[in-house]
Write a structure and sequence with these properties.
This protein has 17 helices and 11 strands. The chain is of the alpha+beta class. The chain folds into 3 domains: 123 residues, no CATH class; 161 residues, Vaccinia Virus protein VP39 (Rossmann fold, 3-Layer(aba) Sandwich); 185 residues, no CATH class. It is elongated and about 90 Å long.
C-alpha cells in the first residue's frame, strides 16, 4: 500500500455490483427443484418452465461474455459497456418474470401492481437459479461459508414471510436454521458448508429440526463449541457459539459426526485457538436427546454416556405430583457459571429464578440432591445443553435408577453434608437492581464444597460402574475454570 496515492495505490474492485450480489437468500427460486414445485402447483406449465431455463442459460452465457470483456476493458471500453448493459437487461427481465410468479405463491392470486410492489419491497427475493444458473445446473456451489442472522422468525422481528413448505427446519423459528438449510440445498455433492451459529443450534428442543438438518445429507460434520467465559470468540459477542463444518453428500446413512467439548480459553490464547481444536467422534446411537449433539472432550465419553443411558430411570421418575413439604428440593434456573446450586431449604431471597420441586416420600431428598449436585451431573449438563439457563427438563432428565442403587444411604449422608456446607460458605449480600431495587441474597461459593462433591462422584461411580479413568475424568471435568479465580463471582 502507498498512503500517498489515491485509494492507497490499490486497484479498485471492478464492477463490485456484479461480483457482490444482494437479496433475501430465503425468498426466491434457488434450485431446479423449486421450479419443479411451481410446475407441479400449476403456477406455470412445462413449456413456460423450459422458457425460464433457456432464458437463465442465456443470462449465464451473457455473464460469461461479460467476464471475458472485463479482462480487455481497457482496450475496448465499448465492448465492455455493451456486455454489461446486455447482462443487466437480460437479468432484469428474468428476475421480473420470476418475481411475478413467486408473488402469486405468497399472495394467493395475481396481485395488483400496488400489492406486488409492496411485497417486492418487503421480501426482496433473490433467485439463485437466475443469478448463478450454470453453477446451479451443474449441481451447486463447491464452498459456502457464512455468519447468518441470529434472529427468531416472527412478525415482530422480520417484515417478510418464509413459507413453511420451503424449509424442513421451519419449526425451529430461527433465521440461521433456514440459511443453513438453504446453503446445503445450494451445494453440490462433495462440497463444504461452514456456518457460525448459536450453540443452541445443537442443544435445545426447539432446534431439533436444525440438528437433523446438520446430520442430513452429509458425509461428515465437524462441530466446535465456544464459551463466553473467560473469553469471547469475537469481541463484543457475548453468546455461546458453534461453528458447523459439513461435507455435503446426498446419502441415506447418517453422517460421521465429530464435536469438541465446550471450549474455554483465556484471552491471551485466542490467536492459537483454532490451531488446537480437539475433535472427537460422537456415537450417534448414544443420544440422550434427539435435539442434541454431545460436546465431547475425549472419545471414551461415549462409554460414559452408554452407562448413563443404560439406567432404567431418570430423576423425573421420582418427582411428586403434589407438594411434599419435607421432601422438597430448591434450585435456581439461572445464575451459576460453573456449578448449579440445589438445597433442602429456600434461598432466603426472592427471585423469579428460584424454583422448588417435591419428590415422592419414599425417595430420599438428600440422596437426589447429591445426584444432581455431582460432577457427573455437571458433565451431563455441559455436554447436552446451551449453558444459558437450567430448566426443569435439563435437571430432571438426568438418568439415575434410584431403585437399583445400593448406595442411597451414602448419597443421603453426603447430600446433607453438602447442603449444610453450601449454606455455611455462602455470603449474604445486598445487591441493587434497576428494576427491583435493593435485594438481599446469598452468594454461594460452591468451589469450597468441591471435596464433598467429589466424594459424591466416588459413590456414584460404584452405581454406574465407571472405571478409575472415567471417574478421574468426571471429577476433574472442566476443573481449570471451575476452580479458578473467576469463581469469586459465582452465585
Amino acid at each position: 500500500m502507498d498512503y500517498k496515492k489515491p485509494n492507497l495505490g490499490l486497484e479498485p474492485l471492478p464492477d463490485i455490483d456484479f461480483n457482490i450480489r444482494s437479496g433475501n437468500t430465503l425468498v426466491g427460486y434457488a434450485t431446479l427443484a423449486d421450479l419443479d414445485k411451481g410446475e407441479q402447483g400449476g403456477l406455470f406449465g412445462d413449456e413456460e418452465k423450459q422458457a425460464i431455463l433457456e432464458e437463465a442459460d442465456v443470462v449465464s452465457r451473457t455473464y460469461a461474455r461479460f467476464k471475458d470483456a472485463q479482462l480487455v476493458m481497457h482496450s475496448d471500453p465499448k465492448q465492455y459497456k455493451d456486455a454489461k448493459d446486455a447482462l443487466n437487461e437480460r437479468l432484469e427481465v428474468l428476475n421480473r418474470k420470476l418475481n411475478k410468479y413467486l408473488a402469486v405463491t405468497y399472495l394467493g392470486s395475481t396481485p395488483s401492481e400496488k400489492a406486488y410492489e409492496k411485497w417486492l419491497a418487503s421480501h426482496q427475493p433473490f433467485h439463485w437459479l437466475a443469478e448463478y444458473y450454470t453453477t446451479i445446473a451443474q449441481g451447486g456451489f463447491d464452498v459456502i461459508i457464512g455468519n447468518p442472522p441470529y434472529v427468531e422468525y416472527s412478525s415482530s422481528n422480520v417484515d417478510y414471510a418464509v413459507r413453511p413448505s420451503d424449509f424442513g427446519t421451519f419449526s425451529s423459528r430461527n433465521l440461521y436454521s433456514y440459511v443453513f438449510e438453504r446453503s446445503k440445498g445450494l451445494s453440490k455433492s462433495g462440497s463444504r458448508v461452514g456456518m457460525i451459529v448459536q450453540i443452541s443450534s445443537i442443544s435445545t428442543p426447539t432446534m431439533e429440526t436444525m440438528t437433523k438438518e446438520v446430520r442430513k445429507n452429509a458425509a461428515s460434520v465437524w462441530i466446535s463449541n465456544y464459551a463466553t467465559r473467560p473469553s469471547y470468540l469475537f469481541d463484543g459477542v457475548t453468546m455461546n457459539l458453534t461453528i458447523i463444518l459439513a461435507q455435503v453428500e446426498k446419502r441415506e446413512s447418517p453422517s460421521l459426526t465429530y464435536s469438541t467439548h465446550y471450549l474455554r480459553w483465556n484471552p491471551e490464547y485466542r490467536p492459537y485457538l483454532f490451531q488446537i481444536i480437539p475433535y472427537n467422534q460422537t456415537d450417534t446411537r448414544l443420544s440422550l436427546f434427539s435435539f442434541g449433539i454431545p460436546k465431547l472432550t475425549h472419545s471414551f465419553e461415549n462409554d460414559v454416556l452408554e452407562k448413563l443411558i443404560g439406567q432404567d430411570g431418570a430423576v423425573s421418575s421420582y418427582v411428586a405430583n403434589n407438594e411434599v413439604r419435607r421432601n422438597k428440593m430448591h434450585y435456581r434456573t439461572a445464575g451459576g457459571r460453573y456449578f448449579k446450586i440445589f438445597l433442602d431449604r429456600d434461598f432466603g431471597s426472592e427471585s423469579k429464578s428460584n424454583k422448588a420441586k417435591s419428590f415422592q416420600r419414599q425417595y430420599d431428598l438428600h440422596a437426589l440432591i447429591a445426584v444432581v449436585s455431582s460432577n457427573l451431573w455437571w458433565w451431563y449438563y455441559t455436554l447436552h445443553f446451551d449453558m444459558y439457563n437450567c430448566k426443569d427438563y435439563m435437571i430432571f432428565s438426568f438418568r439415575f435408577d434410584y431403585d437399583s442403587c445400593l448406595q442411597i444411604p451414602e448419597l443421603s449422608s453426603l447430600g446433607k453434608a453438602l447442603t449444610v456446607d453450601l449454606v455455611d460458605n455462602a455470603e449474604k449480600k445486598t445487591q441493587s437492581y434497576a428494576t427491583t431495587g435493593d435485594r438481599s441474597q446469598l452468594i454461594f461459593r460452591p468451589a469450597l464444597s468441591k471435596p464433598i462433591i467429589d466424594e459424591i462422584d466416588k459413590v456414584l461411580a460404584k452405581h454406574y460402574g465407571f472405571t478409575p479413568e472415567e471417574l478421574d475424568f468426571i471429577i476433574n471435568y472442566d476443573i481449570k475454570y471451575r476452580m479458578g479465580k473467576e469463581l469469586e463471582a459465582e452465585e
